[in-house]
Amino acid sequence: MITFDQILNEIKICLATQADVVQSIDWLVVNRDLNGRVRLIVPESLSGDATKLEKVRCLAAVVSERLRPHAHSTAAALLYDESQEEACKGASAFALEGFGNVWVADRLATEGDWAHIVSESSGAPRVVFFSIKGGVGRSTALAATAWAFAQVGKRVLVLDLDLESPGLSSSLLPKERQPQYGITDWLVEDLVENASSVFQDMRATSALSHDGEIFVVPAHGAQPGEYVAKLARVWMPKIAADGTRQNWPARLRRLIDALEKRMEPDVILIDSRAGIDEVASACVTELGAKLILLFALEGRQTWTGYHILFEHWRRHGVANNIRESLQIVGALLPETGRDDYVSGLQDNAYDLFADTLYDSIPAGEIIGDHFHFEAADAAAPHYPWGLKWHRSFAGLRSLHGRLNDIDAEEVSSIFGPLIRGIANTLGVEKIDV
User: Fold this and answer.
1) Apex CA 107: angle with CA 118 and CA 290, to 5°?
2) Least crowded by CB within 10 Å, which of 168, 224, 285, 387?
3) pLDDT for residue 397
4) Looking at residue 268, what DSSP letter applies?
């Protein structure tokens, strides 16, 4: 018996042995349901061709037998639909590598879809702070970035989308400045057409704003209330009166668009949930980010996690849609043994990109839309922007007071490469940290 990870390879073997049948039909969809069981979907028009239909039924039987227990019975192994688009509707769909007319339709239990890459937003540039693991200084770096941008007069919108582990707002807002509501409140009230009642009271301005402004939208308000009960509902799709359905990432985009229209920021900084879950997938792939910062510690957990994610993009054929937005951040560089640590970080980051997202052309060359950076190219997305560990910034609890007293020289020493990298990417001048 096979396991889930063997399904696609076994499918390819089945289809290759029946290549004449596969090539004789317009399209074929391999439908993988919520339980991981497979059946085939073919055009309805085949019902008028008895000879071809019999061959397709035989193919479905072969697939059913070979993929057990990850396949429906032979009697239920074949479905029909009017078009490939309809057959893939509501699924995470991708072309099966090596076959020009075969698609895989994955039916997922979650609304998040790591393979759905939304085009870059046309408004203020959005920067997502993401990591595979927590505890890497991601939220602290975002707060310092907001501070630095406000120092030069920029209007910064900060969103705490680490909904299951909120805390960023406490680093930028003292308790008395916390707004009444947060993102979870809006998402829940939106389900019952009541979002307008909380919209005006879900943001506050940080006292750290200086010459610019820092608008903070927290995960929850000053009084979290029934936060656990609300959190269990934020992922729900919204069903309108006319029956149309809007999934939760689309609802989240609608909220951000409304906040952007209201506050007219120069840049939007988004603190994402860590890990490969549906909250993080919405932040990384479905909010139209211009820049996605991938925080990394040198270690097996980091590179295994990112390899899983990058390989998923490659397999689904969407790597080209996101790779130019990515940037590795070397998080919490140690005070001792830093050179060796950074060297290992650079080598592993390069291997990750070369194995999955870079094209199979000589390193350092760009051929049309194909590129492959050299390992030592400091302008490459794999080349880490360093973020030093420093005991005075080791936690968020006192960060608000810490930034009140900090000077630009200390920020430059700790966060300089990161802040300058973001500023250069966004074309922001005057930031000299």
Assistant:
1) 15
2) 224
3) 47
4) E
Residue type, 344: G
Instruction: Give how far Cα 100 sits from Cα of 208, 327, 351, Å.
Output: 55, 32, 29
Dist. CA 398–CA 401, nearest whole Å: 6
- How far, CA to CA in Å, does 42 sit from each of 25, 55, 291? 8, 12, 40
Give, rounded to a whole angstrom, the gap between the first and last alpha carbons of the chain: 59
Give the count of alpha carbons within 13 A of 163, CB side only.
24
Q: Is 191 exposed, middle or buried (0-12, 13-18, 19+ CB in 10 A)?
A: middle
Residue 399 identity: L
Same domain for 243 and 392?
A: yes
Angle at 423 between CA 430 and CA 308, to 5 degrees: 170
Contacts of 316 (CB under 8 A, 6+ apart): 92, 94, 115
In this structure, are residues 27 and 103 in contact, taking their beta carbons and an 8 Å threshold? yes
Say yes or no: 102 and 146 in one domain: no
> What does the block give as tokens for 70?
């990850």
141, 289: one domain? yes
Does the predicted TM-score (pTM) go above 0.85? Answer: yes
Cis upstream peptide for 237 (omega within 30°): no
Q: Is residue 431 part of a domain?
A: no
Structure tokens at 292: 């996605």
User: Same domain, yes or no, for 137 and 94?
Assistant: no
The confidence score (pLDDT) of residue 399 equals 55
> Would you give the distance in Å from CA 179 to the centre of its chain?
27
Task: Tell me: pLDDT of 433 over 80.
Answer: no
| 6-11 long-range contacts, CB within 8 A, separation 24+ | 7/32, 7/36, 7/38, 7/67, 7/70, 8/96, 8/104, 10/66, 10/67, 11/38, 11/63, 11/67, 11/96, 11/104
Residues 79 and 209 reside in one and the same domain:
no
Tell me the percentage of the chain whose pLDDT exceeds 90: 75
| Inter-residue contact 269 to 130 (CB < 8 Å) | no
Q: Please answer whether residues 200 and 192 qualify as being in contact, where contact means their C-beta atoms are separated by less than 8 angstroms.
A: no
Q: Are 213 and 203 in contact (CB under 8 A)?
A: no
Positive or negative: CA dihedral 159, 163, 167, 170: positive
Q: Which two tokens stand for residue 129?
A: 């702070």
What range does the domain containing 377 cover? 126-426
